[in-house]
Write a structure and sequence with these properties.
Low-confidence stretches: none
Largest sheet: 5 strands, parallel
CATH topology of the largest domain: Rossmann fold
Radius of gyration: 24 Å
CATH architecture of the largest domain: 3-Layer(aba) Sandwich
Strand order of the largest sheet: 2-1-3-4-5
Strand content: 15-25%
Helix content: 40-55%
Distance between the termini: 53 Å
Number of domains: 2
Length: about 325
């Protein structure tokens, strides 16, 4: 016979579980009923950016909203929309340089008043980068400075103390799914297309060579040794690769400048210096004939700290640049 006290606890647990789910279901229903022309405007704006093929979708958030943002970015990337997560705190310490004028930023914040978001908001305003917000506070600082506002209905959190983000994060997650699938429908992604973004287990993907996925030709960030840093940084920003290759007229490698090099040499006269004063010599290189999975292992495991890119060279001359991003896109990471 079941102990009455245990049965009472079990019944209470089930009752609480049902109450949470019903509260969140009501939130999702209210969210579905709230979608309007701003949602359509957001989809059209992102779709236009995708068609130009020169930008990415940046998803940002802090705290629980940040965890949701990571999931949304992963869902978008896996359904054909180039996307990645940027932590607002890290953005304030250098990662803003990863975001270009061609990108679109989606920022998540239930209150819209997180102080950690201020630098990223200001950056989008300064460089005229489209900012889409997901918030439940239409009068918040975030909403007031956004180009497109996706305002969620204010619904009770499932937490009895109204403190733990529950209903609000569920609505955020669902709204991210709605954006991803709406974009998927627009591009007509088929099941075969979908497999391109989910190549796990495919032998062919594991045997890709570096030469098949590396950046090359006009996508490469290359400057001469006499280039000044003001022009070099512009080149790094234009190519958006996170590094700069220094080469001579014969395309032979002289050195490399990474984000780390910039941070180490940051001072008032940085822009007047030549790249030769900043660059690291004898940069790490790999062969274009190497398997991409081997190159990825080198980036992640060979050195004390993981590195994010490797110059691809043959006979001392530049062939391309391989970044972790290309490995991710190819499905080998």
């Amino acid at each position: 016979m079941i102990n009455p006290a245990i049965k009472e606890n079990n019944d209470m647990d089930i009752s609480n579980g049902i109450k949470v789910l019903e509260t969140e279901i009501k939130g999702l229903q209210a969210l579905a009923n709230s979608l309007d022309e701003d949602f359509t405007k957001a989809i059209e704006t992102i779709d236009k950016m995708k068609n130009k093929r020169n930008g990415r979708l940046i998803i940002a958030g802090i705290g629980k909203s940040g965890h949701v943002a990571k999931k949304i970015a992963a869902t978008l990337a896996s359904t054909g929309t180039p996307s990645y997560f940027v932590h607002p705190g890290e953005a304030s310490h250098g990662d803003l340089g990863m975001i270009t004028e061609n990108d679109i930023v989606i920022m998540l914040s239930n209150s819209g008043e997180n102080s950690e978001l201020s630098d990223l908001i200001a950056y989008t305003r300064r460089f005229n980068i489209c900012l889409i917000c997901i918030t439940s506070n239409s009068n918040s600082t975030l909403a007031k400075h956004s180009d497109i506002k996706l305002v969620m209905p204010k619904m009770p959190e499932a937490c009895p103390n109204q403190l733990a983000p529950t209903t609000s994060t569920t609505m955020m997650m669902a709204l991210g799914d709605a954006i991803a699938i709406s974009l998927l429908e627009r591009m007509g992604l088929t099941s075969e297309d979908f497999k391109i973004f989910h190549p796990g287990g495919k032998l062919g993907q594991k045997l890709l060579k570096v030469s098949e996925i590396m950046l090359k030709d006009d996508a490469l960030p290359i400057v001469s040794v006499d280039t000044t840093m003001d022009k070099a940084i512009i080149k790094m920003t234009e190519k958006n690769t996170g590094s700069l290759i220094i080469a001579d007229d014969n395309n032979e490698i002289i050195g490399i400048i990474t984000d780390g090099d910039l941070k180490r040499h940051m001072n008032n006269d940085l822009l007047q210096k030549k790249v030769s004063e900043i660059m690291s010599t004898n940069p790490k290189t790999i062969s274009p004939d190497m398997l991409a999975v081997e190159a990825l292992d080198i980036m992640l495991n060979k050195y004390k700290q993981p590195i994010t890119s490797l110059i691809v060279a043959k006979n001392g001359k530049i062939s391309g640049l391989l970044r972790i991003q290309e490995c991710l896109t190819a499905g080998i990471a």
